[in-house]
Amino acid sequence: MPLPQVITIEIPLEAFPDYVLPRQLLDRASEVRFLRLDADGFLFTCHVRDSDMRSSLRSAKEHCRRFGGARMHAVAQGPNVIRVAGGWWRDSDMGEREWQAAYGKFKALEASQCYLLRSPEIREKSLVMTFAGDPSEIRKIQRAFNGIKIPYKVGRLSELKDSENAPFGQLTMTQTQVLRLAHAMGYYDIPRKTSTYQLARMLKMDKGTVGRHLRRAERNMLNSLFA
Fold first, then answer.
1. Which of 149, 105, 135, 123 is CA-nearest to residue 34?
2. Does 212 have pLDDT greater than 90?
3. Do 144 and 117 have their domain in common?
4. What mean pLDDT do residues 152-176 have?
5. Number of folded domains in the chain?
6. Contacts by 37-41, CB closer than 8 A, 24 or more apart
7. Among the three residues 86, 112, 132, which one is the final residue of a domain in this structure?
8. CA-to-CA distance for 166 and 170, rounded, in angstroms?
9. Do 96 and 80 lie in a common domain?
10. Positive or negative CA dihedral for 92, 96, 102, 103?
């Protein structure tokens, strides 16, 4: 059986039109943390200095057509924490068949037997995503990005190390996504800072589906630890 592989996909931010991703906000922000990035849109938090916050949010709202952003809290003697949500906008120059094909490639990527090894991140003005899976599934990921016609480069393609494979190797991409968001938003804090209902709204899922994904993710991770 072939060993699982890791692939890192790097997409320059300039490849995204202003109406798709709030690039000016991402350029000014620090500690960008993606909580959701899928076929329907994105959700991330970032740190923005007080002097840049209003102009950054205003610019994002003007250019990014499906943008929603709000300050979560301000850190004493530090930057503001902004939560940003948005959905991909269909290019008016893109035909219906081309748009549906690209959307289908995104959905196929989500359904693949690969998982995000770590949260997507902004690195050197590029969106960086690291996937892990069997070689055949890794090839599907490359074909999906080729089909979407987004310029990208492969920053890394190698065999998966044992230390990288546990415990997230036991989770599907959706389970990993839901679990990361729950952890980041304080679902496991004491006292709990968010609910499955709030997570469902962010993920555009129903509450019961989020609960099932969380329970399955928790069970799979515990199985990997106590097997």
1. 123
2. yes
3. yes
4. 73
5. 2
6. 37/120, 37/129, 38/106, 38/110, 38/177, 39/88, 39/103, 39/106, 39/107, 39/109, 39/110, 40/87, 40/88, 40/204, 41/66, 41/85, 41/86, 41/87, 41/88, 41/204
7. 86
8. 7
9. no
10. positive
Q: What is the DSSP string of 153-203?
A: EEEEEEEPPHHHHTTGGGS-HHHHHHHHHHHHTTTTSSS----HHHHHHHH
Does residue 127 sit in the same domain as residue 158?
yes
Question: Quick one: what percent of the chain has pLDDT higher than 90?
Answer: 8
Between 145 and 52, residue with greater pLDDT: 145
In angstroms, what CA-CA distances link 131 with 87, 150, 211, 217?
A: 22, 17, 24, 17
Q: What percent of the chain has pLDDT over 70?
A: 85
Are residues 59 and 128 located together in one domain of the fold? no
Whether residues 102 and 183 fall in one domain: yes
Domain that holds residue 128: 5-13+91-226
Q: Is residue 178 pLDDT above 80, yes or no?
A: yes
Distance CA(225)–CA(227), nearest Å, equals 6
Q: Using alpha carbons, list the distances in angstroms from residue 172 to 55, 71, 155, 166, 167.
A: 38, 31, 23, 13, 11
